[in-house]
């Protein structure tokens, strides 16, 4: 396992499966009486969040705490960053305070890679979302969730068809999932209006469609992406109503879903826009499971990036 | 000042002939064979060129020297040194200084500082619009009639995107045979753009900069310049489509000229994959198909010249995340070697063509009449190039004040060993002599 997790691009399918298996193992252990493991006791983990993202930050925080790490949270608002401090200076300051692993969420694509590869700090780096580039732990938790539903535990995702629907152009979740799910053998179709489909998408290992209704009946898992209403102001689509009609998962579309299929959303949801309550709260919805699995997958990622089995040989048992 | 009379012995010209070149009082006075033993040259300081290549000093039409205003990145003096080390005897200082070179005062200041440096000619480029804002014409005649005698005008860094302002500028400069050098970039199509739009940007999630943003302005402006009978120069062409447009315009007999930078002849958008902003540049690096089209365009003369777009930046503005970084690369000291690597070693171009694209043609477009040639009666702006040598680029050894080269650690062919400016040897065996022209 690499000493950083910067993008899905860097992972082999074996790496990914190893993370998912480790997460599964952790779920088995923490299911019973033991809620907290001593694995990262005495280690300092920093949540470095330059963008607001309560759920991802809390998920990482919960994961680190369940491994007994000391967690420092840093959010850009009201900090030295708002006074113009550079990413380099901020990271070096945190490392000087003892950070051994930095979980970074940043608005600039590539920020995590810069932090890991520029020689600024020696800490491990985990990408918790960089601009419109990648969000690898989200893709891992999504793969974990899909795997647990289609009884593919231990194996890959071959034969599973996943649709990713929405603002593909601006979505780091879409990029990471397209790469990871296909790496694991699933077939992926991305669905969006042409304005929200990136130029160059034909180089991705996915099918491309502008027609949600055509794709939906074939899907085992449909992943709805959050649509930001400011996209409307930039003329990516004419109105929320039209977007919802063409690309939203509303009650009328629910009947197109295959039996046994699942509905996913990385959150936070815009109910009534990309997803109706009828879909979000349906039995097919696994949205809360995704949140639950997020903690497990992030525990696995923290454990493996900080040394994995090597931690055990240092006298700590997971 | 007192000139040393020189005799460059055994100099190989771009056409392959080997000659002796006599330089007296800064002027090339005789070009002939075996002048060393001829009467009248015995007392000249003899420099044995040893059949290395001798070229007219290179001429750059696109240089950011940062003074006044950003002297931490470059000054006229450090930029002149960088130029001399790269084999340039004339550079053209872009207008995006602070204050902006949009008036006679600033362009005259740039000229004066360059004369004091005394290492090469620095021709100021005037801004087209006040403050480079694209809203109102700057006092173009005042700059043209100033001591700096400005003939090239550009808002480089910004596009003169308003078609009415562009029309007025193109018309206005006709009275003094000026030329508008357009930075072709449709601003609405490139708002917040970070890199070439294509397969790589789609993967990296960096906002795309479509080729059409460049090509649509080129198409508009060649039609407009032709309609008005004005001279148009297109800065730093980067796309295959742009090359096709210029080729078409020239086929129609239109008065358009175009430049390409060395970095666009060699690097592609794949460089952005590691998110190292050393590769962040405006206009952006494009695809390998574009690179090939640019090389072919330069070889067949569709693209008239190589221009460096030398853009010094302090380390801090590159030692950061991609979107926070400044656009630009330094280029004066590596330009010749990159062109040799891409155009000469690939046999796409001859040394004579290289001399044309890097010296003669830019001197003609800029109206720099003393440059671009080695001929009897002309000021001796001459460089010596070891074409068989190679060197490893070390950013710490550059004469520029800035270190933002994408070619650090590259092994490059062809070494500029000596530079003569107005007959004064300012560079000898890659070292500054300390001499300057006064």
Describe the structure.
The complex is a heterodimer of chains A (318) and B (438). Chain A has two domains: 150 residues, Rossmann fold (3-Layer(aba) Sandwich); 155 residues, Rossmann fold, CATH 3.40.50.1370. Chain A is built from 13 helices and nine strands. Chain A has 318 residues and is of the alpha/beta class. Chain A is globular. In chain B, strands 5-16-17-18-19 form a five-stranded antiparallel sheet, covered by helices on one side. In chain B, strands 9-10-13-14-15 form a five-stranded parallel sheet. Chain B is globular, with a radius of gyration of 21 Å. Chains A and B meet through α4 of A and α5 of B.
Question: Which pair of protein chains has the largest interface, and what are the residue counts?
Answer: A-B, 28 and 24 residues
Uncertain runs of chain A are none
Biggest sheet of chain A, strands in spatial order? Answer: 7-6-5-8-9
Spatial gap, N to C terminus of chain B: 6 Å
Strand residue content of chain B: 15-25%
Helix content of chain B: 25-40%
Distance between the termini of chain A: 17 Å
Helix content of chain A: 25-40%
Weakly predicted, low-confidence segments of chain B = none
* Spatial strand order of the main sheet of chain B: 5-16-17-18-19
Report Rg of chain A. Answer: 19 Å
Query: What kind of sheet is the major sheet of chain B?
Result: 5 strands, antiparallel
């Amino acid at each position: 396992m690499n000493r950083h997790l910067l993008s899905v691009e860097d992972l082999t399918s074996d790496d990914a499966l190893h993370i998912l298996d480790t997460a599964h193992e952790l779920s088995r252990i923490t299911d019973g009486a033991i809620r907290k493991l001593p694995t990262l006791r005495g280690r300092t983990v920093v949540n470095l969040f330059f963008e607001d993202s309560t759920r991802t930050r809390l998920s990482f925080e919960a994961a680190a705490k369940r491994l007994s790490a000391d967690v420092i949270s840093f959010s850009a608002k009201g900090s030295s960053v708002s006074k113009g401090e550079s990413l380099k200076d901020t990271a070096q300051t945190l490392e000087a305070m003892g950070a051994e692993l930095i979980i970074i969420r940043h608005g600039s694509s590539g920020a995590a890679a810069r932090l890991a590869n520029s020689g600024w700090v020696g800490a491990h780096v985990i990408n918790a979302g960089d601009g419109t580039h990648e969000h690898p732990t989200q893709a891992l938790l999504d793969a974990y969730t899909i795997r647990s539903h289609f009884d593919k535990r231990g194996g890959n995702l071959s034969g599973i068809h996943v649709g990713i629907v929405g603002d593909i152009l601006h979505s780091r979740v879409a990029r990471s999932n397209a790469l990871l799910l296909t790496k694991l053998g699933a077939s992926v179709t991305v669905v969006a209006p042409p304005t929200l489909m990136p130029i160059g998408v034909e180089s991705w290992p996915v099918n491309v469609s502008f027609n949600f209704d055509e794709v939906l009946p074939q899907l085992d898992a449909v992943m709805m992406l959050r649509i930001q209403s400011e996209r409307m102001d930039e003329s990516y689509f004419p109105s929320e109503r039209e977007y919802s009609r063409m690309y939203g998962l509303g009650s009328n579309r629910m009947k197109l879903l295959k039996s046994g299929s699942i509905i996913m959303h990385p959150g936070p949801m815009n109910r009534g826009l990309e997803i109706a309550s009828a879909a979000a709260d349906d039995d097919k919805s696994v949205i809360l499971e995704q949140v639950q699995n997020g903690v497990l997958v992030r525990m696995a990622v923290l454990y493996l990036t900080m040394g994995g089995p090597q931690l055990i040989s240092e006298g700590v048992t997971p | 000042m007192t000139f040393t009379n020189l005799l460059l012995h055994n100099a190989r010209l771009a056409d392959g002939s080997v000659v002796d070149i006599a330089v007296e009082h800064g002027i090339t006075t005789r070009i002939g064979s075996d002048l060393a033993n001829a009467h009248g040259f015995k007392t000249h300081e003899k420099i044995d060129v040893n059949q290395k290549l001798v070229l007219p000093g290179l001429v750059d039409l696109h240089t950011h020297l940062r003074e006044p205003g950003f002297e931490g990145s470059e000054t006229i003096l450090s930029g002149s040194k960088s130029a001399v080390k790269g084999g340039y005897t004339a550079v053209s200082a872009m207008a995006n200084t602070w204050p902006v070179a949009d008036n006679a005062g600033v362009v005259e200041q740039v000229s004066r500082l360059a004369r004091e440096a005394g290492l090469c000619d620095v021709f100021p480029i005037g801004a087209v619009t006040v403050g480079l804002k694209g809203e109102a014409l700057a006092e173009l005649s005042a700059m043209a009639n100033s001591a700096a005698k400005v003939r090239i005008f550009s808002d480089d860094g910004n596009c003169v995107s308003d078609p009415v302002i562009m029309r007025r500028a193109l018309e206005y400069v006709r009275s003094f045979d000026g030329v508008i050098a357009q930075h072709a970039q449709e601003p609405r199509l490139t708002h917040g753009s970070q890199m070439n739009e294509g397969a790589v940007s789609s993967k990296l999630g960096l906002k795309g900069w479509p080729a059409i943003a460049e090509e649509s302005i080129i198409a508009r402006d060649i039609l407009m310049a032709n309609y008005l009978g004005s001279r148009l120069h297109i800065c730093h062409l980067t796309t295959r489509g742009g090359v096709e447009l210029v080729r078409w315009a020239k086929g129609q007999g239109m008065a358009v000229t175009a430049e390409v930078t060395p970095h666009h002849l060699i690097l592609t958008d794949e460089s952005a994959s590691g998110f190292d902003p050393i590769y962040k540049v405006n206009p952006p690096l494009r695809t390998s198909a574009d690179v090939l089209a640019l090389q072919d365009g330069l070889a067949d003369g569709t693209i008239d010249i190589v221009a460096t777009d030398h853009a010094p930046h302090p380390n801090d503005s590159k030692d950061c995340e991609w979107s926070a970084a400044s656009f630009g690369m330094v280029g004066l000291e590596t330009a010749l070697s990159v062109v040799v690597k891409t155009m000469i070693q690939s046999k796409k171009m001859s040394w004579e063509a290289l001399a044309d694209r890097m010296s003669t043609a830019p001197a003609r477009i800029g109206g720099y009449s003393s440059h671009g040639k080695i001929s009897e009666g002309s000021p001796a702006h001459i460089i010596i190039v070891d074409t068989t040598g190679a060197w490893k680029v070390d950013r710490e050894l550059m004469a520029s004040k800035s270190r933002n080269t994408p070619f650090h650690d590259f092994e490059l062919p062809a070494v500029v060993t000596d530079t003569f400016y107005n007959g004064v040897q300012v560079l000898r065996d890659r070292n500054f002599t300390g001499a300057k022209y006064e």
